[in-house]
Amino acid sequence: MLKIHQLFLRSFIFIFLSILLLISIVVYFWSKSIYFEQIEKNILSNIDTLAISLPNLKDIDAKVLEIKKATNLRVTIINKDGVVIAESDEDKNLMENHLNREEVIAAKYKAYGEIARHSHTLDKDLLYIAKEVNIDGEDYYLRMSSEITTIKKYFIKLTLQLIGIFSIFLLLAFVVSYYISDKIRHETDNILNFLINLTKKKDLTNMSSFYTQEFFTINKLLNKVAIKLQKKEKTKAKHTAKLKLANKQKDEIISAISHEFKNPIAIITGYAQTLQNDKDLPVQMREKFLAKIDSNANKMTQIIDKLRLALKLEEGKEKIEKKSIDLNNLCKNIITDLKDKYPARVIEITGIEHKIEADETLMNMAISNLVENALKYSEDKVTIEITKEHLKIIDLGIGISETDLLKITRKFYRVSQNGWNNSLGLGLFIVNSILTLHDFKLQISSIYGKGSEFTIKY
């Protein structure tokens, strides 16, 4: 892999050589075009002059040789059948029919025909121009041609001159670019050494560079990075403590999940072994044991469903199907379901009758969770207050501390002080996620030791 100053030098040399080649090609074709244009004008002028000076074909061979001597152009006169009737450079009797020559064909339909090609007769590169003329009342093709080998010599000479000029310029540019690349190398080496020391956490001194705006900005930013890293090193101990706390919480979560599954599994295993070992167990007792097994299996299923729901809500994969819901009827159904579990508790609904647009299943789950939490952590009655703006669950229980209020809706956050324990720490996380999915808000206010209020604002 190349260093930046090496890449700079190679790119510089490549660009200048490419420019030299491109200019040489452009100059070649440009000079060739100009040269051909001059030859073309000269030949056409001589053709017109010769056509005027040939009123008849008398002494045509002598006239053609005279023109050749005066203009140094090859002259050929061809009749309408393509037969060469006069030729300045070769024996006309040995020459083949010229009717199918490209310049002759073009002269039939245009003012004149032209083509540059190699003459096998003379073994030279020639520019041929043919034009139809009238001599002594008959149509003939008057063709003249000129050598074009001079352009090659001209090109070689011009190329050598260009190479010489660009070589001098390239040498000067190389000296300048070498100086620039050396400065760039020096600056990059300083930056690399600074970064190496930074990774090795060595004491760093401020860098300074005023060579270019880019290096000045890079050095300034690196100095800022070094200062930030030094500050981060000072706070590393605090972060380490936080990581230890996170690991502790993770262990507590795993312990909580294990505990939640341990009791149902133990009950299921115990009753199942009893049923297997005691074949003479009374039917009533057997049904009771099977009911216990079914109940605890359902409990485990609910725990798994709760974990899956929490994951889907967190990933945004849970979809809702909104419809009009009567909150009073929904709360009455929730109370009826909870009465089986808390038969001695009083749950009161106050306020007005009100309907909202929401997913009935998810809202049932959210409100039921809040009401059951209120029943768990209070001994007095629980009140459900319904208004046009909110649904509020009020309990007179143990309350929640200000510290825990800020964290209680986090996933797997568990409060265990003073008897408050929200199981896996998923209940309020799921409630908050469901409400967020509906664009509702959950507000929690609590006075420690006196009670709490959970408000759903819709």
Integer tally of domains:
4
Q: Assign a percent range to the helix content.
A: 55-70%
What summary fits the major beta sheet?
5 strands, antiparallel
Number of strands: 12
Walk me through what this model shows:
This protein is α+β, with helices and mostly antiparallel strands and 458 residues long. The protein folds into 4 domains: 1-52 and 150-199, no CATH class; 59-148, Beta-Lactamase (2-Layer Sandwich), CATH 3.30.450.20; 243-315, Helix Hairpins (Orthogonal Bundle), CATH 1.10.287; 323-457, Heat Shock Protein 90. The chain has 11 helices and 12 strands. The strands form 3 sheets. A 5-stranded antiparallel β-sheet has the order 2-1-5-4-3. The protein has a 5-stranded mixed β-sheet with strand order 7-9-10-12-11. It has a two-stranded antiparallel ribbon with strand order 6-8. A hairpin with a 4-residue loop joins strand 3 (113-119) and strand 4 (124-135). Helix 4 (150-199) runs parallel beside helix 5 and helix 9 runs antiparallel to helix 11. The longest helix is centred in the middle third of the chain and has 50 residues, at 150-199. It starts with a helix and ends with a strand. The model is unreliable at 416-422 (pLDDT under 50).
